[in-house]
Design a protein that fits this description.
- The complex is a heterodimer.
- Chain A is of the alpha/beta class.
- Helices cover 34% and strands 24% of the residues of chain A.
- In chain A, the strands form two sheets. Chain A has a six-stranded mixed beta sheet with strand order 5-6-7-3-8-9, with helices on both faces. A three-stranded antiparallel beta sheet of chain A has the order 2-1-4, covered by helices on one side.
- In chain A, helix 2 packs antiparallel against helix 3 (108-120), helix 2 runs parallel beside helix 4 (136-148) and helix 6 (194-200) packs across helix 7 (234-247).
- Chain B is mostly helical.
- Chain A binds chain B through residues 55, 58-60, 77-79, 81-83, 85, 87-90, 98-99, 101-103, 130-132, and chain B through 154, 156-157, 159-166, 170, 174-175, 178, 254-257, 260.
Chain lengths: 248, 260
């Protein structure tokens, strides 16, 4: 029976073997269905394996046991890293265009979509700027546009706003929701900020540490579109309070 | 306006150089004059200048200058290519590194000058033994620069290339080489200076061509003003080749923080 979910993970374990020490169980018996078009946040204390799980989903790490099925048979996905990892010698547009160059997909249609994405991210005026001339928030915007440039259905984000200050971070969250609404991607977003997880997600996956397991999946029933007012909603406070309680 | 500023800066820099060198020449001039230093020990600057001009006026210097430049450029290019290839291989294939590194360390720490007589026996007194000496002097710094450059690439850049399903060639040509350029250029600058030293020393020991030969010839005939003119010429050759690398570096690393 084939799943219609974007990603379906069954009984997944990830164990790091070490000849000298005991094996480290990073992930144990992870079962997770990522629905088409949803915004899923993964949260947990450091060392709970949330980044490892994202890397396994992204194909950067191989699972030790278990299976992952993708709806997209070519397994296309975009990855936004904690650091923007822009190539310092390329300007904003060239960085965003980089995946199209790698995959030899510089069609007129793709180039036009790229320009539209740059516009959406407010980067049109900075197309020819080099990364060293940009602020942290700007760099991360470019990195998000780059991950979206080749129109993969799934976007994986590993604490992308972790290094930004609180005010910039709130802005980026609102912009990300805007981009998500317009592009209709499935997003998996790893964070250690409870407020960020609640603000963004349809569902929040709470992980616990050693071994990394899923403790609970909390659906977030806050109205959309969400904006700066959402954070003042009493229900927003209830969710963050509840999550803080189970993370412990 | 920006361009004018740049020109002004260059002129100012050149002026400072000229000033500093003039002071040095003046001190030299008066030292020789007041102390009656004999010409076969230290000739005055104007005598050196005359010898220097003579070298060019009579045309004797050209084949020598050409020979040394040819050895330096060719040895540097071959040595750099070998260094880069080895550096790449070392970071990609661990066993190769384990197998070859001891020999390279040995070659690097051994006084390579001592190998010149051996090279002469093996490769003759011609240009080949000189170029081989230069290569041995250039390979190691470039190899180190290449390894340092490749290891400086952030893990997530490699992850990005993996997510994008880039081919090995794309990773090499679009990312690895570019990331290695800053440390490669530092090593090229060390390499080119080494190459000039290697060429001059090799020419002292064998053959009848090159600036090194002019130096030994002038020394053995006590023509100290010609010897000093030759030294000045080797210094100029060193500076010019170094500056050429500098120009390439500024073009290639326009994006680097050091060029802001």
């Amino acid at each position: 029976m084939e799943s219609t979910n974007t990603v379906s993970i069954k009984h997944l374990d990830k164990i790091y073997s070490n000849l000298l020490k005991e094996d480290t169980v990073a992930l144990k018996d992870i079962n997770l269905e990522i629905k088409n078009g949803e915004f899923l946040s993964i949260i947990g204390p450091s060392g709970c394996g949330k980044s490892t799980l994202l890397k396994v989903i992204g194909g950067l790490e191989k699972p030790t046991r278990g299976e992952i099925e993708y709806l997209d048979k070519e397994n296309r996905l975009g990855f936004v890293f904690q650091d923007s990892v822009l190539l310092p010698w390329k300007n904003v547009r060239e960085n965003a265009e980089f995946p199209l160059v790698i995959q030899k997909k510089q069609t007129k249609e793709n180039e036009e979509r790229l320009d539209a994405l740059l516009e959406l991210a407010g980067l049109t005026e900075f197309k020819t700027a080099l990364p060293r001339e940009l602020s942290g928030g700007m760099k991360q915007r470019v990195s998000i546009v780059r991950a979206l440039s080749y129109d993969a259905p799934l976007l994986l984000m590993d604490e992308p706003f972790g290094a930004l200050d609180a005010i910039t971070r709130d802005h980026m969250n609102e912009e990300l929701l805007n981009i998500w609404t317009q592009t209709k991607k499935t997003i998996v977003f790893v964070t250690h900020s409870i407020g960020e997880a609640v603000f963004l997600a349809d569902r929040v996956v709470v992980m616990s540490t050693r071994p990394g397991t899923i403790k609970e999946i909390v659906p977030i029933d806050l109205p959309r579109p969400r904006n700066s007012q959402t954070r003042n909603d009493p229900k927003f406070g209830e969710y963050t309070g509840y999550l803080r309680g189970i993370i412990g | 306006m920006k361009k004018e500023n740049k020109l002004l800066k260059i002129l100012k820099g050149a002026g400072e150089y000229a000033f500093s060198i003039s002071i040095f020449i003046l001190v030299w001039h008066f030292y020789v004059r007041w102390n009656d230093v004999p010409e076969y020990i230290l000739p005055s600057p104007d005598k050196v200048w005359v010898s220097f001009v003579d070298l060019f006026r009579t045309g004797t210097v050209w084949p020598h200058l050409w020979a040394t430049t040819y050895e330096v450029v060719l040895g540097f290019i071959i040595g750099s290519l070998i260094g880069m290839a080895l550096g790449y291989l070392f970071t990609k294939v661990e066993p190769v590194k384990t197998a070859l590194m001891p020999y390279l360390i040995f070659l690097q720490t051994a006084p390579k000058i001592a190998l010149v007589p051996l090279f002469v026996v093996w490769f003759g007194i011609g240009v080949v033994s000189k170029i081989i000496l230069i290569i041995t002097m250039v390979v190691f710094p470039v190899l180190s620069g290449m390894i340092l450059g490749l290891e400086s690439i952030p893990t997530d850049v490699r992850n990005l290339m993996k997510v994008l399903k880039a081919t090995k060639w794309q990773v090499f040509s679009l990312v690895e080489i570019r990331y290695s350029l800053p440390s490669l250029f530092s090593s090229f600058k060390i390499g080119i200076v080494q190459a000039v030293i290697g060429a001059i020393v090799a020419e002292w020991m064998s053959g009848k061509q090159g600036l090194g030969y002019i130096l030994t010839y002038a020394s053995s005939t006590y023509e100290v003003s010609m010897l000093l003119a030759g030294i000045v010429l080797t210094i100029i050759l060193g500076i010019v080749t170094y500056e050429i690398i500098n120009i390439f570096e500024n073009k290639a690393l326009y994006w680097h923080e050091s060029k802001e």
